[in-house]
Design brief:
397 residues, alpha/beta, three-stranded antiparallel beta sheet, 15 helices, 12 strands, 43% helix, globular, binds pyridoxal-5'-phosphate
Length: 397
């Protein structure tokens, strides 16, 4: 059976070039990058090459890149590392204040909740109906003890891009640290940490065609960060633990390919496929709408809500026909709670539950999109025919 994967915001396949780059580091080049002998120096050189590549992707210096196990660790290191260093150094008031938003990934939200439970103050700024944070809300939320603003660059469910440069300005004017979770933005839009004016920025390998279990955190030179892992002095004492050399090499290669894609127009091709998908679905399916319409978005993502549809049922029906999509964040799939992102945007629970996320990757072709389009309208219609709620409201369409 033909299978098409349009769930690249959950994870991406490792590209063949990336696999080829990392492969020798499982066998031939196996040294510990901290060893001073030949085997160690060989892998050290590969790690530093990857560091330079990741740094270039985000406009940083190589020394400002810390390799991590992924986005969750990067977010935790940024938030706990910064807040804890403030406590230690006495650089902030005893109860540091953090500003974040209601639509962050749980890697950020739950880190903030944990800190809140241990005495920190946290403000969760709202978003509007398009999923956008108003930088003025952040300005208004500032307090004398605000230590950190953490706002994501691109949302994992809707692809909506925040005005990170404006938020960076608010942070700079208030002399407050700014972290942005760029896990869903890296490789999809150009990133320049200096233009954004952020102090910390997290990325994850498996969202950009490198494997799961590797990521990076940009830490601006001079940022006081207390490690969350204690051990050796790896990564300039910012992240203890023997480096995941094959993963890091893969991330370096994926970052290089991402930069190439910006130049080759690959992302324009991707946004054209995304737009075709949206126009066709909206044209053929009544009672459908784009979540985040009107906001700037990454080129690969669309979140579409279908009235009178149970998203989970639609995911399963499409999967049975060979199409992999998602109702939203992978970690909340199967959960009964509607998406916190969509409800924060003002959607009713049933609208959030009736939403589907389609996310493209570099491997997807126009044939993949046509395959999806041959299934979605037909299956939505079939599910609605079975829905007593739809049959009651159908007359309104
Ligand atoms: N932040 C965002 C926006 C994400 O979408 C994800 C993963 O879905 C993460 C953080 C966590 O990244 P990882 O899976 O690498 O831990």
């Amino acid at each position: 059976m033909r299978r098409v994967y349009l769930d690249n915001n959950a994870t991406t396949p490792v590209l063949p070039e990336v696999l080829a780059a990392m492969h020798p580091y499982f066998g031939e080049h196996f040294g510990n990058a901290s060893s001073i002998h030949h085997n160690g120096q060989e892998t050290r050189a590969a790690v530093e090459g990857a560091r330079a590549s990741v740094a270039t992707l985000v406009g940083a210096r190589p020394s400002e890149i810390v390799f991590t196990s992924g986005g969750t660790e990067g977010d935790n290191l940024a938030i706990f590392g910064l807040v804890n260093s403030g406590l230690t150094l006495g650089a902030a008031k005893p109860r540091p204040h953090i500003i974040t938003s209601t639509i962050e990934h749980h890697a950020v939200l739950n880190s903030c909740k944990h800190l809140e439970a241990s005495g920190c103050e946290v403000t969760y700024v709202p978003v509007d109906g398009r999923g956008l944070v108003d930088p003025d809300d952040i300005r208004r939320a500032l307090r004398p003890n605000t230590r950190l603003i953490t706002i994501m660059m691109a949302n994992n469910e809707t692809g909506v891009l925040q005005s990170v440069e404006e938020i960076g300005q608010v942070a700079a004017e208030a002399d407050v640290y700014f972290h942005t979770d760029a896990v869903q933005a890296a490789g999809k839009i150009a990133i320049d940490v200096k233009r954004i004016g952020c102090d910390l920025l997290s990325i994850s390998g498996h969202k950009m065609h490198a494997p799961q279990g590797v990521g990076a955190l940009y830490v601006k030179k001079g940022t006081a960060l207390r490690p969350i892992l204690h051990g050796g002095s790896h990564e300039r004492s910012r992240r203890a633990g023997t480096e995941n050399v094959p993963g890091i090499v893969a991330l370096g290669k994926a970052a290089w390919l991402a930069r190439e894609a910006f130049a080759s127009g690959d992302l324009d091709r991707m946004s054209a496929l995304r737009d075709r998908m949206e126009q066709t679905i909206l044209g053929e399916v009544e009672g459908a709408a784009i979540n985040g319409q009107g906001a700037p978005r990454v080129p690969n993502t669309t979140s579409i809500r279908f009235d009178c549809i149970e998203g989970e049922a639609l995911v399963i029906a499409l999967d049975l026909k060979g199409l992999a999509v998602s109702t939203g964040a992978a970690c909340s799939s199967g959960a009964i709670e509607p998406s916190h992102v969509l409800t924060a945007m003002g959607m009713r629970a049933e609208q959030a539950r009736g939403s589907l996320r389609f996310s493209l990757g570099k491997q997807n072709t126009s044939e993949d999109v046509e395959f999806a389009l041959s299934l979605v309208p037909q299956i939505v219609t079939r599910l609605r025919e079975l829905s007593p709620v739809y049959n009651k409201t159908a007359s309104s369409y």
